[in-house]
Design a protein that fits this description.
Helices cover 76% and strands 0% of the residues. It comes from Linum tenue. InterPro entries: BORCS6_C.
Amino acid sequence: MEGGSGERGESVTEQPELDGSSTGLELPDERAATELNRREIVKAVKVVEKDSLAIAESFTSLFSSLRSALSEATNSSVDHMHCFGDATGRLQESVLDAATKGNRYINSSLRLNEELKGIETLAAQLYPFCSSLHAFRPFDWAED
């Protein structure tokens, strides 16, 4: 009730505004102090908000940097894995090619060995014939 008559006809003087945080009446000097406290609180809150924003931006920058570094490392690892896979594939092809050529060489050597055995048999069969021919020829076969 402000500035009006009460129920008994008494005039009521104007009451100071009540602060939501205070439970009693405040004097004008206290009101000025409270207003000053509010301003300081608002300033402090603004400083805290500004600092919080700076911290948030710092974390955002940090996470962005970490994300970029992780992405770069991952891409690098993936690229290396593709490179290793390609190199492994080429190495496998080279090994298979070398093994195939090695098998051909071994098979050719075995065939040549069998043919040489056949030639040895032929030479053994021809030796008596050559020896008898040599007896009829007056010159040495080594000179031919």
